[in-house]
Amino acid sequence: MFRRVGTNYCLALMLEPWNAPAGRFFVAYKGRHGFRALIGNGVADEFRTISAPLFITPTPLLGKIYDSGMALADRRDVEAPLDLGWPPLCMGLDIASPALADNWQPELLDVLTDSKPGQAPAWPVAGSSKAVSGYEIEFVRCGGPQLSSQVTVLGTTAPLLPGQLERLADIDNSGLTVAVATGNRLLRSQNDQAQHIDVVSETVLERLVEATRALLAEAK
């Protein structure tokens, strides 16, 4: 579900092509153990949505990576609407930062826009996926070994609402857990028309919760 791209100093989890038509995905997150290394979460707090890649980087680089995410959004629309990549959600790891080349930002933007091949980050990345009830659940985890320094991102192709995503995020115990659903993408309203938003039944949600619990347990 996630397309992993980036460099040795930044891992970006792409939910769709960087220049996809205007739209947003529901998101929820949970911080624990004193985790504070998070930038760009204002829209997630207020609207419970995201339209940008999810960036994971050493904490000292959070500001620089956020600026790069904003530069990526500017390539789509300089007005930075919240359904065209603004703001980028950037998560920090309690690890040392690799040295940056002079042209690091143009290279990162080239990787994000597919005009240049990326590379693996300079830290271990765990992850796995599972199919359940016709949907996919995937997780990506970076950081550690202390729980307070771990970042976990959960993704599902199921159409979940923010409150349902919170139930998935609650299963984990990382310093930060982000849960995002791609099954009910919100489109830009045309002529103020109401949208139909899909959502799974409680029965399917329980299966997704159990599958997520099993997936995370297998990774320990």
Order of H and E elements: EEEEHEEHEHEEEHEEH
| Mean pLDDT score | 94
Strand content: 25-35%
Kindly state the percentage of residues in helix. Answer: 25-40%
Report the total helices: 5
CATH topology, what is it called?
L-amino peptidase D-ALA esterase/amidase
Cα gyration radius (Å) = 17 Å
- Based on CA inertia axes, which overall geometry fits? globular
Global structural class = alpha+beta
Uncertain spans = none
CATH homologous superfamily designation: L-amino peptidase D-ALA esterase/amidase
Fold blueprint:
Elements: E1 3-7, E2 10-14, E3 23-31, E4 38-39, H1 42-46, E5 49-50, E6 54-58, H2 62-76, E7 89-93, H3 104-112, E8 125-132, E9 135-143, E10 150-156, H4 162-171, E11 176-181, E12 186-187, H5 202-219
Parallel strand pairs: 6-7, 10-11
Antiparallel strand pairs: 1-2, 2-6, 3-5, 3-11, 3-12, 4-7, 8-9, 9-10
Task: Write up what this structure looks like.
The protein has 220 residues and is α+β, with helices and mostly antiparallel strands. It has a single domain, classed as L-amino peptidase D-ALA esterase/amidase (4-Layer Sandwich), CATH 3.60.70.12. It is 26% helix and 30% strand. It is built from five helices and twelve strands. The chain has helices spanning 42-46, 62-76, 104-112, 162-171, 202-219; strands at residues 3-7, 10-14, 23-31, 38-39, 49-50, 54-58, 89-93, 125-132, 135-143, 150-156, 176-181, 186-187. Strands 3, 5, 8, 9, 10, 11 and 12 form a seven-stranded mixed beta sheet that branches. The protein has a five-stranded mixed beta sheet with strand order 1-2-6-7-4, covered by helices on one side. Helix 4 (162-171) runs parallel beside helix 5 (202-219). It is globular and about 50 Å long. The chain starts with a strand and ends with a helix. The relative contact order is 0.20.
